[in-house]
Amino acid sequence: MQNQIRIVTIGVYGFDEDGFFSALTNAGVDTFCDIRRRRGLRGSAYAFANSRRLQDRLATLGIRYVYIKELAPSQAIRDIQKTDDNRIGVGKRQRAVLGPAFVQAYNSECLQNFTATKFLDAVGPDTRVVVLFCVEREPEACHRWLVARRLAQELSVELEHIKP
User: Fold this and answer.
1) What distance in Å separates the CA atoms of residue 146 and residue 159, rounded to the nearest whole number?
2) Which of these CATH numbers, 3.30.450, 3.10.110, 1.25.40, 3.40.1010, describes 6-74+115-162?
3) 130 touches 29 (CB < 8 A)
4) Of 20, 40, 99, 123, whose Cβ has the fewest other Cβ atoms within 10 Å?
């Protein structure tokens, strides 16, 4: 194993810009791992999390930005969750957990060949505190939870979930 890292997760919903970046620096994050398929958000409230602005701000904070598209769920997988959300009458921002069909599809499509070694290679040997980023407020309502859980198991480390 390369080095012992800490794994944290964060979503953008519920944060304002200052709170979001303060949370990252307070957690000691040195590597920001974006695992969204689409790296943009609608509206001005979360414009700071749009890819270019996000990368620029992270650079000023001395935080490396890494994009791992292979960990982003495809539109087909996201549609599975949307169908489940509609069936139970919950909006994306109100979702508390992922549906079992999403979890199964995500594990099959995105995590089947995923390993901690590949992840460590992607984030680099100097990484000490890596944050997995997507948009949902609740970690268990987002695929970042599935990735983080797998990494924590393979690397025998604990997870920290940063919430607003």
Assistant:
1) 11
2) 3.40.1010
3) yes
4) 40
